[in-house]
């Protein structure tokens, strides 16, 4: 039985990857952080009974800032494959805690590589490093002649997160070259899912629209609507992580859809899922910076099929405003990736396109928010979370 160790197993990608590897018969070990509340929601369905000796998913307390802890876990687990997915992964937040991000996302990668080397596991253990399209920085002049970022595009990170991840990228490459380790970077473009963290833009949008459609919320706030991202589905991308470690040679890979879309259009697509046509006033950002829901006919049909009472509340009202506090000191304006190498050399075929992704996320958030509606109907209070 193959043994895998996943850092960041409690995150979006970690949970899908654990599912995939368990399905392939792996014994899967994951590193989770100690927290004052349970933080394993995304993997609880995989982790029924920790006392069952046949349980193939095993969790260890740990942290990427703690070398001794990582070394001990790797020694105990003797993994065939390590997927280093753990990170402070929020770009905007990285401007608020740049030193911590450098420590976790940059040096954390070194700690994993060095532990494997010192334990004499360099030949046995393959390592996947969660690199990112943020390394490209979105500079137009760095795209290839076809207009995409690929494995040969110059790197120019635009945030403390990107700068920390570029250290992780280069140290992984360096250990591969210096010590002949099977260590690979996956330069993954944005990938989302119903399990996406609530403060990333796609999930923030689908949650808010689900709440608006169900009458639980009036409006929501976003930052830069003009940013363009190449969005794929996390399920497709974790499959590729595994494929990267099954390749003949250790290499670096770009994983993307090759299609780019503005945040503004993502909002429109998500509203369409609940039957609402959005009209953006003044190209989206007028002097007040708001967007209106104006298609009365379509919207009424949604409201009547959902929350009759709130019909009057939303027609013709602002449903989205711009809050400049979500702007970033330096922004990555446009990302679009070229996955040709992954498709041709590894045979990767994504199953989801953006329309499927939006549908999947909206369906899931509507179902989730309906539970809140049921709670309200039963007379319970629901907690308002800061978005
Ligand atoms: P998430 O933010 O959902 O998950 C991050 C995981 O890292 C969580 O399990 C988190 O634990 C854990 N973590 C955070 N800090 C530490 C630490 N100090 N020590 C150990 N673990 C820690 O990210 P995703 O699943 O979306 O992304 C996975 C990886 O891929 C990340 O490295 C991210 O930077 C990278 N990436 C993501 C892309 C995307 O679009 N999703 C694109 C390209 C790269 P906890 O649950 O306790 O917070
Ligand atoms: P990103 O994802 O920074 O690309 O990093 P995020 O969803 O946070 O932002 C995407 C774009 O949307 C704009 N935006 C907003 N973003 C957030 N979070 N909240 C808002 O209210 C908002 N309004 C507009 C942003 O300015 C940005 O342009 C993600 C993370 O998963 C990284 O870990 C990963 O490396 C990269 O994707 C690839």
In a nutshell, what does this entry contain?
This protein is 39% helix and 15% strand. By secondary structure, the protein is α/β, with parallel strands linked by helices.
Descriptive terms for the model:
387 residues, alpha/beta, Rossmann fold, UDP-galactose 4-epimerase, domain 1, 2 domains, 7-stranded parallel β-sheet, 4-stranded mixed β-sheet, 12 helices, globular, binds NADPH dihydro-nicotinamide-adenine-dinucleotide phosphate, binds guanosine-5'-diphosphate-rhamnose, GDP_Man_deHydtase, GDP-mannose 4,6-dehydratase activity, lyase
Explain the overall architecture.
By secondary structure, the chain is α/β, with parallel strands linked by helices. It has helices at about 10-25, 65-75, 90-95, 100-120, 160-180, 200-215, 235-245, 265-270, 295-305, 310-315, 340-345, 355-375, and strands at about 5, 25-30, 55-60, 80-85, 125-130, 185-190, 190, 220, 230, 230-235, 255, 260, 280, 290-295, 320. β1, α1 (about 10-25) and β2 (about 25-30) form a beta-alpha-beta unit. Bound molecules: NADPH dihydro-nicotinamide-adenine-dinucleotide phosphate and guanosine-5'-diphosphate-rhamnose. Guanosine-5'-diphosphate-rhamnose (GDR) binds near residues 189, 199 and 222.
List the helices and strands and how they pair.
Blueprint: E1 3-7, H1 12-23, E2 27-32, E3 57-61, H2 67-77, E4 81-84, H3 91-94, H4 98-118, E5 126-132, H5 160-179, E6 183-188, E7 191-192, H6 201-213, E8 220-222, E9 228-229, E10 232-233, H7 234-246, E11 253-255, E12 261-262, H8 263-272, E13 278-280, E14 290-293, H9 296-305, H10 311-314, E15 318-322, H11 340-346, H12 354-377
Parallel strand pairs: 1-2, 1-4, 2-3, 4-5, 5-6, 6-11, 7-10, 8-15
Antiparallel strand pairs: 9-12, 13-14, 14-15
Helix pairs in contact: 1-7, 2-4, 4-5, 6-8, 6-12
The structure holds NADPH dihydro-nicotinamide-adenine-dinucleotide phosphate (NDP) and guanosine-5'-diphosphate-rhamnose (GDR).
NADPH dihydro-nicotinamide-adenine-dinucleotide phosphate binds at residues 7-8, 10-14, 31, 33, 35, 39, 63-65, 85-89, 104, 130, 132, 188, 190-191, 197.
């Amino acid at each position: 039985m193959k043994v895998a160790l996943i850092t960041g197993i409690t995150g979006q990608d970690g949970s899908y990857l654990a599912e995939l590897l368990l399905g392939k018969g792996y014994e899967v070990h994951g590193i989770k952080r100690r927290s004052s509340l349970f933080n394993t929601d995304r993997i609880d369905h995989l982790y029924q009974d920790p006392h069952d000796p046949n349980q193939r998913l095993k969790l260890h307390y740990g942290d990427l800032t703690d070398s001794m802890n990582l070394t001990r876990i790797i020694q105990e687990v003797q993994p065939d494959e390590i997927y280093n997915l753990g990170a402070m992964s929020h770009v905007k937040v990285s401007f608020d805690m740049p030193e911590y991000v450098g420590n976790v996302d940059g040096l954390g990668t070194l700690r994993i590589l060095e532990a494997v080397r010192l334990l004499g596991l360099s030949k046995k253990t393959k390592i996947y490093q969660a690199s990112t399209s943020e390394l490209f920085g979105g500079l137009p002049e760095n795209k290839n002649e076809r207009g995409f970022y690929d494995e040969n595009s110059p790197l120019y990170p635009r945030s403390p997160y990107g700068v920390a991840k570029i250290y992780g990228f280069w140290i992984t490459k360096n250990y591969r070259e210096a010590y002949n380790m099977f260590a690979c970077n996956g330069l993954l473009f944005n990938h989302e899912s119903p399990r996406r963290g609530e403060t990333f833009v796609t999930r923030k949008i689908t949650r808010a629209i689900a709440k608006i459609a169900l009458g639980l919320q009036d409006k929501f706030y976003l930052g830069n609507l003009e940013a363009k991202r190449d969005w794929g589905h996390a399920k497709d991308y974790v499959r590729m992580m595994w494929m990267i470690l099954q390749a003949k040679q250790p290499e670096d890979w770009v994983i993307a859809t090759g299609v780019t879309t503005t945040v503004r259009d993502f909002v429109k697509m998500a509203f369409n899922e609940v039957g609402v046509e959005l009209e953006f006033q003044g190209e989206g950002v007028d002097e007040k910076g708001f967007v209106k829901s104006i298609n009365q006919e379509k919207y009424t049909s949604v409201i009547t099929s959902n929350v009759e009472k709130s019909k009057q509340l939303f027609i013709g009202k602002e449903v989205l405003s711009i809050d400049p506090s979500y702007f970033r000191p330096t922004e990555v304006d446009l990302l679009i990736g070229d996955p040709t190498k992954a498709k041709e050399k590894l045979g990767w075929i994504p199953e989801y396109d953006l329309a499927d992704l939006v549908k999947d996320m909206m369906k899931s958030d509507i179902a989730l928010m309906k539970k809140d509606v049921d709670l309200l109907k039963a007379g319970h209070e629901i907690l308002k979370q800061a978005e």
